[in-house]
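User: structure tokens for this one?
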Amino acid sequence: MGKPQLRIFTLAVSLCIIGSIALAQTTTPTDTQASTASSKQSNKTPAATAGSNAETATPTAASSARKSPGKPAATDAQIAAAKSSGQVWVNTETGVYHKGGRWYGKTKNGKFMSQADAKAAGYKASHRD
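Assistant:
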């Protein structure tokens, strides 16, 4: 295979990969149903729609595969106060507590507590802090 043929082959493979990624990110029936339900509920009073679609919508495979910290569970002021009082951040999903570092106060599901309470509750220390 010559260089021009190899370049064309590489381009074709790249386009196939990009096309499959774009296809995987298109709207799923679950997303369409959730948006239809939200538009139907938008005519209701705010009290009737509170706590509905945002919590009950089924996440897509692409959004659940991400490992980003998302919206932190604690504010910067809470994090500073907890650090100064010597508390650890417990990630209640993973069962790991952080003394500081990247995930301190940043994971979606977590809480502050003393290190002794975290150990007593069965949480394990993070090895990456």
